[in-house]
Automatic annotation (TrEMBL):
Keywords: Dioxygenase, Iron, Oxidoreductase. Its EC number is 1.13.11.93. GO terms for molecular function: dioxygenase activity. It holds the Pfam family HGLS. This is 2-oxoadipate dioxygenase/decarboxylase.
Length: 462
């Protein structure tokens, strides 16, 4: 096999995310409006901060700044999940992390398919938050069986997509023509279908059990339910959404605005009510509506160590005990204030965050260093200015934030309670693989950067 004739997985992923973006903009015009707003605000932010522009020019490709960083889908069965894993693998996307959303009233558990390793992430960080419906959490047995029957009858991938996955697995990659065809075939899986798989009566029963069940079971495939570009100023986008005629969710999820951004901040516009048709028993189509698709934005900060994450979780918990954000936004400013106040306990200085072991950093030789002490002690070299440290970006998701995004887009009527029941083993057995541990992944990037920086310092010694 001539390896060099294969298109790289990174290139296939880039082509796929661009194709998804074009499709979704056409399907959901409000999303196009959000993209314009994000691009305008990113430009204004960069114009006002030449230093930020310079840093991004060096580390990121500036022209890709407003492009999508993630999307999300919801699947119905173990077979769909394991096949999805094989499809994403062709694009260099692997399952990282396990998210249990049952405790937050959403009957799914999830992972993120994403590129792994520094080089692939830099090339194109696109990921897909992928949830699997948990019918085991649904009490009504006959409804559960009907849902399973409906799901078992659908095929979410084209036969062409499956054939190309098998070919890529057998041969180790795809050539140019196959890769182009692969992207086109796989795109079909994520397309919106306005003709439901079920009749109106079943749709409403599913909907009454949980809106999410209706969304997963009633349609031919797992339509992409949102895409998410990156913004340099999430607060500005949140503020300006109404001026462009789009309704933001009540509050920004995640940590507050800070000097040193941590983890992930997200907000979205509320899902739109869309026209669909249900198949009737007599074979005719009956008009109805469904609400599922929205647009989101994200702003990422440093990846936290388990210690940093524990601090984040406890501060968020403390905030939400003091003020629980209401879905209608009525206490949004009180919540924001509480969040700011409580998070003062989290150091807001890179050196402090590093010294206290709260975040992961990448080490590199400082090109501006004048003299380099003869030592291989990292701390001494940092103190002497020979080695610098930069925050490693968080590439994953946050369960409390994800639950907030789900809730706001499932309609903000009373959230339903489920018994908290994480089941990572079951998820991994359905997936057909284990999920990567996010902390181990960041720790490795950090360790490898430190080793490389020390080697480079040594090599430069006379
Ligand atoms: C996924 C919601 C979670 C995020 O960014 O946290 C999510 C969904 O609604 O299917 O996308
Ligand atoms: Ni999202």
């Amino acid at each position: 096999m001539k390896e060099e004739s294969f298109v790289s997985a990174d290139d296939i992923r880039s082509a796929f995310s661009a194709a998804m973006s074009a499709m979704y903009r056409k399907e959901v015009p409000a999303y196009g409006t959000l993209l314009e707003l994000v691009a305008d605000i990113n430009k204004a932010t960069l114009d006002a901060a030449p230093q930020l522009r310079e840093r991004l020019e060096q580390t990121d490709s500036l022209d890709r700044i407003s492009e999508e960083r993630h999307g999300a889908i919801r699947l119905g069965t173990a077979e769909e999940l394991s096949l999805m894993r094989r499809v994403f693998a062709v694009m260099g996307m692997f399952p990282v992390g396990y998210y249990d959303l049952s405790s937050a009233g959403v009957p799914v558990h999830s992972t993120a398919f994403r590129p792994v390793g520094d080089a692939a992430l830099k090339r194109n960080p696109f990921r897909v938050f992928t949830s699997l419906l948990r019918l085991d959490l649904i009490a009504d047995e006959s409804l559960r069986e009907e849902a399973l029957r409906t799901l078992a009858a659908r095929r979410i991938f084209t036969s062409g997509a499956i054939a190309l996955v098998e070919k890529a697995e057998a041969e180790g990659g795809l050539g140019t023509q196959d890769a182009t065809q692969f992207v086109a075939e796989v795109l079909e899986t994520f397309r919106w279908h306005d003709h439901a798989n079920v009749n109106a009566e079943l749709y409403h029963r599913l909907h009454d059990a949980h809106r999410l069940i209706a969304d997963v079971v009633s349609f031919k495939g797992p339509h992409i339910n949102h895409l998410t570009p990156r913004t340099l100023d999430i607060d500005a986008v949140q503020r300006q959404m109404p001026e462009r005629g789009i309704a933001p969710k009540a509050v920004v999820e995640g940590p507050p605005t800070r000097e040193c951004p941590i983890l992930l901040r997200q907000t979205s516009f509320k899902a739109l009510e869309e026209q669909v048709s249900f198949i009737d028993v007599d074979g005719t189509w009956k008009p109805g509506s469904h609400t599922a698709r929205f647009g989101e934005i994200e702003q990422r900060g440093i990846a936290l160590t388990p210690k940093g994450r524990a601090l984040y979780d406890s501060l968020l918990d403390e905030t939400r005990k003091a003020v629980r954000p209401a879905a209608d936004g009525s206490n949004a400013s009180r919540y924001e204030k509480a969040l700011q106040d409580v998070f003062r306990a989290f150091p807001d200085d890179w050196a402090d965050i590093r010294a206290q072991g709260l975040g992961y950093f990448a080490y590199s030789v400082d090109a501006k260093a004048k003299s380099v002490p003869e030592t291989d002690d990292l701390e001494t070299l940092i103190a002497a200015g020979a080695i610098r440290f930069d925050p490693i970006t968080y590439e994953d998701f946050l369960p409390v934030s994800a639950a907030g995004i789900f809730q706001s887009n499932l309609g903000d009527d009373q959230a339903q309670g489920f018994v908290e029941s994480p089941n990572q083993k079951r998820f991994e057995s359905d997936l057909g693989a284990s999920v990567l541990d996010e902390f181990a992944h960041y720790a490795r990037i950090e360790r490898e950067s430190a080793e490389a920086a020390l080697r480079a310092v040594k090599a430069s010694e006379p």
